[in-house]
């Protein structure tokens, strides 16, 4: 079967020789030290940057063949910083959908529901939100485009246990219902990595140092660098 | 009638300058040299301009006006371009914008018979339009660098949601144009109440009745307002493109980042 996403020998300004693939219906964890290149890799996948060498395929087709706006709506990115637009929560949620079509407040209420924020938040100004609420709005904003693939850059880092659970639950549902075909999930939380991705990629200094089945590499790491990283 | 200022009294103005210089000295502000230098420079510039204008006014209007407008637009371009160092084609673009806006405003004045095509009317009025455009362009460029640094993550968010560079920049363009226009909007609100505008002051000192003087002031104030907003708008919608490539990606421009 052809892979959902296939990263073939990709190098960029900050990454060297990345080989990676993700099967349909799975979640891949990206872990590694700060500055290791996790965010840089995500930016290649929705073409916020392009590789200097190598190629990225979506279901066998180079992503450069897909129209840019369509590609970015299909591959949704949730950034490490919430990066909300000024204005209300609704202004943020409707940004993506209204670029191409219609928006109704009902959609907004549904999105807030998905990230367990009260519906009254629709009219709230974003600078009145807490860090964790901002993070959830940013996640909901990405979901508003109904992406087929999700790139999640530490989307639960500012949340409490209960909300982490809620988001993780939502991610499972998205995969199970096949609304989302696959996810790359950057996390600093090893136990979250164990819960979420079937496959884990360990990156350091712009390279993939080790990758494999999550259970396998997190319990029996082969490289000294990953051993070291897991100890910390 | 306009009072004559004698050479002797002009000379006595030196005492006016001595006051800020001594204050700077007493409070160790370290400004003495620059106060002295800028006063001297200002005086010399004005004297030269005085003679230059006298000469230009004696030429046939078309020639005198063209020469002076050319000089003013060029100087304004060089000055405003400093704020845009790092952008490609800054000077050419700014020159075209300032000249274009000036010509448009001039056409309106002449078309509506507000002023005559005479050097002593066109040159001072144009000077104010060009000078204010220059300041607005400088503000717009500074603000643009600031906004694109501060708002980088938000631009990336917009691009990630499928926005084109143009759509993603909407978020910032409004703020940039607004920032460039604020000084003029504020100025218009209190115009005449706090400070009598320079042009009106000059006309009144020259013996023109106040009710006559305000007519000119209204023309010039609104013209400046128009040219400031047009300049800021053009500059912003032209220059934001340089932050993107044709693959809808933010390009890194070290040189256009805030210093
Ligand atoms: N916009 C940028 N311009 C230049 N260098 C950058 C930029 N963003 C990141 N880098 C550099 O690229 C390298 C990889 O950064 P990246 O953000 O991909 O790491 P990361 O694994 O996501 O780290 P973190 O866990 O801290 O988010 C780092 O050395 C970083 O300094
Ligand atoms: Mg990162």
Automatic annotation (TrEMBL), chain A:
Keywords carried by this UniProt record: ATP-binding, Nucleotide-binding, Transport
Superkingdom of this protein's organism: Bacteria
Single GO term (MF): ATP hydrolysis activity
ABC transporter domain boundaries: 2-230
Record bears the keyword Transport: yes
Pfam families: ABC_tran
PANTHER family (UniProt xref): ABC TRANSPORTER I FAMILY MEMBER 17
Protein name (record): Putative ABC transport system ATP-binding protein
Species this chain originates from: Texcoconibacillus texcoconensis
Upper taxonomic lineage: Bacteria, Bacillati, Bacillota, Bacilli, Bacillales
TrEMBL record, chain B:
Entries under InterPro entries matching the protein: UPF0014_fam
A GO CC term attached to the entry: plasma membrane
Superkingdom classification of source: Bacteria
Subcellular location(s) per record: Membrane
Keyword tRNA processing in annotation: no
Pfam families: UPF0014
TM helices/strands, residue ranges: 6-28, 93-110, 122-141, 190-208, 214-244
Membrane topology qualifier: Multi-pass membrane protein
Keyword field: Membrane, Transmembrane, Transmembrane helix
Main location: membrane
Family: Belongs to the UPF0014 family.
Name of the featured protein: Putative ABC transport system permease protein
Organism in which the protein naturally occurs: Texcoconibacillus texcoconensis
């Amino acid at each position: 079967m052809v892979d959902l996403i296939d990263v073939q020998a990709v190098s960029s300004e900050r990454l060297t020789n990345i080989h990676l693939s993700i099967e349909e219906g799975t979640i891949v964890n990206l872990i590694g030290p700060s500055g290791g290149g996790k965010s840089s890799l995500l930016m290649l996948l929705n073409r916020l940057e392009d590789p200097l060498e190598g190629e990225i395929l979506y279901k066998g087709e180079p992503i450069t063949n897909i129209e840019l706006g369509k590609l970015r709506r299909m591959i949704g990115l949730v950034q490490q910083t919430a990066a909300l637009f000024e204005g209300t929560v609704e202004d943020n949620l409707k940004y993506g959908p209204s670029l191409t079509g219609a928006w109704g407040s009902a959609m907004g209420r549904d999105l807030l529901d998905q990230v367990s924020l009260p519906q009254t938040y629709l009219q709230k100004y974003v600078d009145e939100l807490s860090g964790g609420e901002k993070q959830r709005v940013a996640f909901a904003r990405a979901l508003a485009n109904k992406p087929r693939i999700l790139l999640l850059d530490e989307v639960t880092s500012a949340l409490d246990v209960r909300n982490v659970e809620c988001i993780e639950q939502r991610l499972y549902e998205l995969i199970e219902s096949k609304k989302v075909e696959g996810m790359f999930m950057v996390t600093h939380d090893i136990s979250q990595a164990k819960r979420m991705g079937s496959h884990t990629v360990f990156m350091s200094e712009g390279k993939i140092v080790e990758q494999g089945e999550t259970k396998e590499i997190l319990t029996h790491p082969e490289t000294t660098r990953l051993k070291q990283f897991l100890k910390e | 009638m306009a009072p004559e200022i004698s050479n002797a009294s002009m000379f006595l103005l030196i005492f006016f300058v001595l006051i800020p210089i001594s204050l700077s000295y007493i409070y160790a502000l370290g400004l003495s040299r620059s106060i002295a230098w800028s006063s001297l420079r200002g005086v010399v510039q004005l004297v030269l301009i005085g003679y230059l204008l006298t000469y230009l006014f004696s030429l046939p209007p078309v020639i005198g006006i063209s020469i002076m407008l050319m000089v003013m637009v060029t100087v304004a371009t060089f000055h405003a371009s400093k704020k845009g160092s790092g952008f490609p084609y800054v000077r050419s673009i700014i020159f075209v914008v300032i000249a274009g806006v000036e010509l448009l405003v001039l056409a309106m004045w002449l078309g509506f018979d507000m002023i005559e095509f005479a050097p002593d009317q066109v040159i001072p009025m144009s000077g104010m339009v060009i000078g204010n455009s220059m300041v607005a362009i400088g503000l717009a460029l500074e603000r643009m660098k600031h906004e694109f640094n501060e708002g980088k993550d938000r631009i990336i968010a917009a691009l990630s949601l499928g926005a084109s560079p143009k759509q993603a920049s909407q978020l910032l363009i409004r703020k940039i144009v607004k920032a460039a226009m604020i000084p003029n909007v504020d100025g218009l609100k209190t115009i005449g109440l706090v400070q009598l505008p320079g042009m009106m002051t000059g006309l009144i000192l020259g013996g023109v009745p106040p009710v006559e003087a305000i007519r000119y002031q209204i023309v010039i104030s609104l013209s400046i307002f128009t040219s400031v907003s047009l300049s800021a708008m053009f500059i912003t919608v032209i220059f934001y493109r340089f932050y993107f490539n044709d693959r809808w990606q933010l390009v890194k421009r070290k040189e256009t980042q805030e210093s």
